[in-house]
Amino acid sequence: MPPTPFLDRIHGFYQRRAAHALNTRPLTLDLRTPIVSFTFDDFPRSALLTGGAILEQFGLRGTYYASFGLMGRNAPTGPIFVRKDLPVLVARGHELGCHTFDHCHSWNTTTAAFERSIMVNKTALEELMPGAAFRTFSYPISPPRPRTKRVVAGRFSCARGGGQTFNAGTTDLNYLRAYFLEKARERPDDVQRVIDANRAQCGWLVLATHDVCRVPTPFGCTPGFFTDVVRRAVDSGARILPVAEALGSMVRSDQRAAGGLC
């Protein structure tokens, strides 16, 4: 039977429920100040050369999820990073995260093949930047298989998905929620609402996109829109940190509360 829109919706619902319900790693957020993280999937060059420059104008840094199999290629998200961009990204204080080597579909790819792609991506990073390591992960394209979540949990401090919302209360480190800016680039007030809600609930809002350029792909946004979002996030009073640094600050706060650190 050929797929139908109804069957596609049912399948998508099942994927989302399974990804959220199984193989979780709960984290209870108890923040005194909300946090916002800016992330870029695929690491298009414009995400660093334009998006990163915008963040730096505000004294901020972001997280870039790289698929080394795409390096130097033109992808649906535009021209992807080249080798010389890597030391520039690190020198400017941004975080480099993992997105699998092959930009694997997170549901349609077997867990074994997905894990191999993670390891190949890790090897590529070590060869190009000796001593460097990925700390965080972003699932490409779709929600992950539950078994894939379990594998990812053993290799990264946290992994990011989508969901068009923020993290508050108890969240899942194996499948952090994120808000994709390209889905609201014609509706900036929607972005303001999620920023306001994150502030009201003292949550962790992970904003995501791909390219940042004057004529963006369907998966990116314009520099003007991105600048406006950054300004709105700053005005909300949130701490704005790369993903690994944000998570690290929460762990340190928990340890201090338990008497582990002074």
Number of H- or I-type helical stretches: 8
- CATH fold category name: TIM Barrel
Uncertain ranges: 255-262
- The overall pLDDT, averaged over residues, is 91
What's the architecture in CATH terms? Alpha-Beta Barrel
Q: Structural class of the helix and strand makeup?
A: alpha/beta
Beta-strand percentage?
15-25%
Q: Work out the number of β strands.
A: 12
H/E element string?
HEEHEEEHEHEHEEEHEHEH
Largest sheet: 8 strands, parallel
Taken from the alpha-carbon principal axes, the silhouette is globular
Q: Provide the number of structural domains.
A: 1
Task: Provide the CATH top-level class.
Answer: Alpha Beta
What is the CATH homology-level superfamily?
A: Glycoside hydrolase/deacetylase
End-to-end separation: 63 Å
Measured as a percent range, the helix fraction is 40-55%
Whole-angstrom Rg: 18 Å
